[in-house]
Write the structure tokens for this entry.
Amino acid sequence: MCRWLAYTGAPLYLEELILKPEHSLIDQSLESHSGATTTNGDGFGIGWYGDRETPGVYKDVQPAWNDANLRDLAAHIKSPLFLAHIRAATGTAIQQTNCHPFRHGKWLFVHNGLISGFARVKRELALAVAPELYPRILGSTDSELMFKLAISFGLEDNPLVALERMAGFVEKTCADQGIDKALQLSVGVSDGQRLLAVRYSTEGRSRTQFHSTSMQALQEINPDLRRFSPDARAVVSEPLSDLTDVWEEVPESTALVIHRGEIQTHPFEPRPPD
Amino acid sequence: MCRWLAYTGAPLYLEELILKPEHSLIDQSLESHSGATTTNGDGFGIGWYGDRETPGVYKDVQPAWNDANLRDLAAHIKSPLFLAHIRAATGTAIQQTNCHPFRHGKWLFVHNGLISGFARVKRELALAVAPELYPRILGSTDSELMFKLAISFGLEDNPLVALERMAGFVEKTCADQGIDKALQLSVGVSDGQRLLAVRYSTEGRSRTQFHSTSMQALQEINPDLRRFSPDARAVVSEPLSDLTDVWEEVPESTALVIHRGEIQTHPFEPRPPD
Amino acid sequence: MCRWLAYTGAPLYLEELILKPEHSLIDQSLESHSGATTTNGDGFGIGWYGDRETPGVYKDVQPAWNDANLRDLAAHIKSPLFLAHIRAATGTAIQQTNCHPFRHGKWLFVHNGLISGFARVKRELALAVAPELYPRILGSTDSELMFKLAISFGLEDNPLVALERMAGFVEKTCADQGIDKALQLSVGVSDGQRLLAVRYSTEGRSRTQFHSTSMQALQEINPDLRRFSPDARAVVSEPLSDLTDVWEEVPESTALVIHRGEIQTHPFEPRPPD
Amino acid sequence: MCRWLAYTGAPLYLEELILKPEHSLIDQSLESHSGATTTNGDGFGIGWYGDRETPGVYKDVQPAWNDANLRDLAAHIKSPLFLAHIRAATGTAIQQTNCHPFRHGKWLFVHNGLISGFARVKRELALAVAPELYPRILGSTDSELMFKLAISFGLEDNPLVALERMAGFVEKTCADQGIDKALQLSVGVSDGQRLLAVRYSTEGRSRTQFHSTSMQALQEINPDLRRFSPDARAVVSEPLSDLTDVWEEVPESTALVIHRGEIQTHPFEPRPPD
């Protein structure tokens, strides 16, 4: 099981949420309590929005806890919207092209979850990727393919509908192969303005996802910090601290859209292909 | 431009041809004389047949000249049939899954060359891979796809015909996209018994390929060595030494089949799909 | 806390003890039960004796469980005497030169343990290394320095005395700096003939170390295997299986010398410098 | 032979000097014209000053031309003072701790050159490092040792005198061992305010070093760029472009101190120990 975190608010050094909190993302990569796998040592990545048109991405295949570069970069890069991901591979190769976030133009995508029976449906899913995007599939993961499918289905115009179409297409393709419980989905997506998060699973028993409800939630994580703005919000695949009462669990089959501190909640309903 | 070497004969430590000769494969990776690119620093791999059913493979993304492990392994692994490859990437990611040799069961495959306009035909080529092989495409190179296509076209039963069908299919697919000079092919393939090599290009101006003609050829490379057996033969993408007169250039559009020191020559004629 | 395994007996493929047993070394690298740290993801190494004068070594900084090369090499390399090590770093850099086994001529050295307050005594210890060996200190660990000290103190002539002199020197140097509990030592050493193992700690509460007592012990680990010879013996820093009754714990302050299946036990008594 | 570049002036994205110019540092890492070695493929590093107290550093052991992260970071990190280095190793291990820049507090250090007969004097030099700094020697290069010696000799108070004392000490130590032509030195050092550069060799035939003399020099390198400030200056170990007339060669045995566009020139005279 992977883990991820997304932040939007006043610019923060990435280290303030990734490295410094007592139960930081990196710290947790060494020891997973709620996860199915014990260790997230199969690579990591950060993606952040700055003053360029496209976001920056830094990925490596080492365990995040070993990466001296990550510590330095997280201490020097400041951003108003960033995503971080640590990977626990489930069969695919340990290589940078399989690490999250995935990027397409100004869009970033992180994911924790899986497509059941992926090897049996991979070809069918890849065929549904827009032909001009096909040669830009760089790695071998289900996550990258889900992102490319969502782009093919209109992510840049209407991200929630595109994600619902992607989920519907994956479920239909799996069902055609007799695969139950096709999808486990905990997705974070951004275009640099809005932060979207989806919690969904075919079987209705999804992996966890939490969002902070207030500035206070973040300050309780990192008490040394006074820079959290009133509109600062974070979404995490598992709570970053033991103070779980200041984090709200995202309900089953739900999409969040976070913009300037405001959190909108939408039902997430996969749209099968016609 | 990549480089490769293949050896068949009495068991040798890999280092005797990869590391020790004055103009060894590794030495040449630092400075390419005949090649289009200046440096082969984008990863390497060795594949060797031993006493297990499937051959062993060791690959890394570092430059070969930097790899302390390679030096040690090449000094300790002895094999009667091995292939070595050093990579100069032309756009695809530097990752182990893009390094040669590629392996399928007992088969190994190395390649120097390219498919012109690969991004434009990649999807079409991938669709022609046998569906059960599709999820086993691990990297993103044209070389791996050529190997998977050849397997789909019957490599395990009739390797030369399968390679000709692969070449014909690639040329046809490129032609349909208006791509000239589709293929540059310098391939080495083995099942552990026979060593096959193909030199071919659509335009009839192929990259070089040489084979040794006698035991003496190999002894001139590595004079310290007395272990070369009378049936020892090597194929290289460029001559390993300046003693080019003891190496015979493989003619254009030719396939070699080397078995127990005997070298058979066949014309190589791509077979377009029906 | 690191982990290691050493084997001596009829030649085995390394995978048979490193990868295949249910509680193999690699499997345990993901989840440590008895150890102080939770995960051994900071690199690994194997060293094996073959038919060359010096042993082969393969090391990498990735977690062992991720390394495709390790799986292939362990499946193809067969040896009558090998050591394997997986690392959990305690502050020093994650780099190949810090991975075990360390090698000097025909000698290999693996270690689990530490020198307390290492930064405070490192210079003093390095000064005691034989001047001609000083430039051959390649990494930054306490383990490599312990090995270089033991060589300086005569390891090649009398390994047990040299290790005792090393331990005595480290304890004296630490004591001079007011450092208690100077040493935790679980060492495996070999010259390709004999396998030596030392369990010792200054405070008399050493990390675990076990040795197999019979061929049966190894067969219980890997029941598929019939190739274990009557003189096969293994030493491990933690028991490889739950069948702990067939493994004998090495007593405190003890050195083992294993040769052709015979296990000699010696008290291990650090020798302070004169 | 390594290569390096240092920039001071109005904040620039690092890519504007490292990646984008036709004869950029990275481009040149593939093919060295003036250098003794053909390829700088043995790792690289960047160090930059931002709004934190200490500078950021990013290093990797891959060839710079392969590093997707470097491209992204250089496109997103903007700095008024940065150093970049690409390495061609001369015998020491390829590992991050051997990559430049080296950092100590707010100081950064890059180097191209070598200490002749380093293995014979390494121990003597290491003993002269301040004892409290000794455990902070992380790698195995002569360059890091030169930096640690300069710090030990007062770099933070008087950098030029400290570098002269370092050079004098190295020359004396080498001379005691009968080593001629002890030093080749092309150093870049900064505390985030001033940029210092030294060109020196014992034999008086030093490796090249150039500095730009005006804003125009930099604009000729990267014509797309209008952001160069009047006080922008760069120092490079080899000219970045073929437009060598706008770059001034630093004379033999000379130190530059660059501050706010003003370039002071000092003779560089090694100070032997008393």
Summary: The helical segments of chain D are 15-18, 25-29, 68-76, 118-128, 142-152, 159-176, 215-221. Chain D touches chain A at residues 48, 50-52, 56-60, 68-69, 72-73, 75-78, 96 (CB under 8 Å).
